Amino acid sequence: MAKALTTHPSGTGIAYRDEVPADRDRHGVLWARLTEAPGEGRPNFRALHTSRQRRSMLEQLCQVCGGPASRSSRGVLFLLQRPEPGEEPTGWPEETLSTKPPICEPCATLATHHCPHLTDPVLVRSRKPRIWGVFGGFLTPTANGLTPLPSHDTLPYGDPTAPWFLASQLVVELTRCQVVG
Fold this sequence. Notes:
Blueprint: E1 5-7, E2 14-16, E3 30-31, H1 50-59, E4 71-72, E5 75-81, E6 96-98, H2 105-114, E7 121-126, E8 130-142, E9 145-156, E10 165-174, E11 177-180
Parallel strand pairs: 3-10
Antiparallel strand pairs: 1-2, 4-5, 5-7, 6-10, 7-11, 8-9, 8-10
């Protein structure tokens, strides 16, 4: 993918050499491209596919089966990792930023058994999950082309540094939350 990326002709960000409108979201953020091969291979619970993750967030689909996420009058169901003792922010899970799409109840059990990131899983319903921004990384121009900066970051929509950011996941902010059993 690195060879497919270049500095935008305007010099004010990154672009694909063969960029098409679908490469950017409605906020103008450039998205990482991944191969689509539905039904092939094995599930990778360590990583979410970029376009499937984004679609699941936007349409509130289950991150595991792709069907509708569980919804009730208490909100949309999300499966989160509980913060470490003493590191739980005041009011958690209110205003938690999440890259993990919602989930349906049957798949929640499956995910808690197979996802390596869920050592202390918590089910949370959010009555108002809102699109907040993106997760990914910054690229910077060098004499040899574009170089990724070493860290991955979350970036709120509207950030002025967005032209240099390559998104790989959509981030939602969970509000009006309730922890459920």
